[in-house]
Amino acid sequence: MSPLREVAAYFLRLGTIAFGGPAAHIAMMREDLVRRRRWVSDQQFLDLLGITNLIPGPNSTEMAIHLGYTRAGPWGLVVGGACFIAPAMLIVLGLAWAYVRWGTLPVATSILYGVKPVIIAIVVQAMWGLARTAVRSALLAAAFVIATALALAGVHELVVLFGVGIVTALIVARRPAPAVGVLAAVWAWPAPAMAAAGAAGVATLGTLTLVFLKIGAVLYGSGYVLLAFLRADFVDRLGWLTDRQLLDAVAVGQVTPGPVFTTATFIGYVLAGVPGAVLATVAIFLPSFVFVAFSRRSLPRLRGSRAAGAFLDGVNVAALGLMAEIAWQLGRAAIVDTLTAVLAVGAAMALVLARVNSVWLIAAGGVLGVAWRALHP
Fold it and tell me: Could you read off the pLDDT of 23-73 as tens digits, one per residue?
């Protein structure tokens, strides 16, 4: 079998069975491609993983793109990423069709009633795990608190990300006066007005594509940070989705294999049918292919720069601040009574203490939601 066909076959299979989120996907790639197939060494794998942490976009997808390139060259880059994304996209597209057709039926709303609080627990657990890695100093802890406060105050998420990153870099470079000036400017930044299309409540393909292209080009951190961007754009600014619909989209992204970013497929279909689903998916993943192609040589040197490294550290903790804000906002929509509160706390305990796979928790939440609604019609 040629290297390109190897890449296609492997990532199609992985994209079909890879449940559990980015960390699980990367662990599967290491087991298969380092230990069994020996496409790369452990050191090469770690180097590629380090590069993915320095560029925006979904880490596990970018690892698939990197490994495809390593195995089969430029065409491997395209085929590896596309084959990892395609199965999840098709599965999510089918679920989105079912949601639009039957999402308001009692059984569907009962399932989502039990799933949503579990999603909140998963987001909080992911945020906690990432914080243990990202918040390594008092400066980064302070940056996280400031980013969370800015997000809660309604400051644009891009301003939070890059503003906190710049301030962190300036402080590390021992330039406190410019850092204070940047922070003051960020805090004074007004919340953007709702777009005219959003005010009319009409989704347009052009705006939909540009929003997802922007998100794919600037999103650092875990795929769960995606929630902050989606809510800010589609719920707050454009008014195209409700908090309930956003949680439904996230729930579908969680119960399907492959990248969490295929949540974009679901939202694109709900807003604009099959064309919207295709354009949203292409737009959110396209920047990752571009960044991987251009980053393989330049970013290892960038990480060696103290100021650039500090900027990236600041961006990472700012992303956690955005996650904290979105967990609070969506938690208010998902935890509405005693049962949903118990589900959220129970799911969090199962994740932390027993390390239960999130897919099983989501399934259990759905079953309990249906049972509860059946007993309390």
Answer: 668 878 888 898 889 998 887 887 787 677 678 888 889 999 999 999 999
Residue with tokens 């600041």: 314
Most confident by average pLDDT, 130-144, 198-212, 219-233, 290-304? 130-144
The range of the structural domain enclosing residue 154 comes to: 3-375
Give the pLDDT mean for 341-356: 89
Backbone dihedral region for residue 193 (phi beyond 0: left; psi -120 to 50: alpha; all else: beta): beta
| DSSP per-residue codes, 21-73 | -HHHHHHHHIIIIIIIS-SS-HHHHHHHHHHHTTSSS-HHHHHHHHHHHHHHH
- Spatial contact of 317 and 218, defined as CB atoms under 8 Å apart: no
Q: Quick one: DSSP state of residue 236?
A: I
Distance CA 252, CA 267 (A): 10
DSSP 125-136: HHHHHHHHHH--
Q: 41: alpha, beta or left, given left = phi > 0 and alpha = psi -120 to 50?
A: beta
Beta strands in 317-375 (DSSP E): none
Q: What is the pLDDT of residues 146-168, one digit of tens each?
A: 999 998 888 877 788 888 989 99
DSSP string, 145-173: HHHHHHHHTT--HHHHHHHHHHHHHHHHT
DSSP category for residue 261: G
Crossing angle for the helix pair 176-188 and 138-152, to the nearest 10 degrees: 20
Tally the domains of the chain: 1
Q: What is the distance between the terminal CA atoms of the chain, rounded to a whole angstrom?
A: 57
Neighbours of 91 (CB within 10 A): 19
**Tokens 């998100």 -> residue:** 215
DSSP state of 291: H
Distance between CA atoms of residues 55 and 299, nearest Å? 8
pLDDT-above-70 percentage for the chain: 87
Is the pLDDT confidence value at 271 over 90? Answer: yes
* Mean pLDDT for all residues in the chain: 84
Closest by alpha carbon to 276, among 203, 197, 218, 194?
203
Q: Whole-model pTM?
A: 0.73
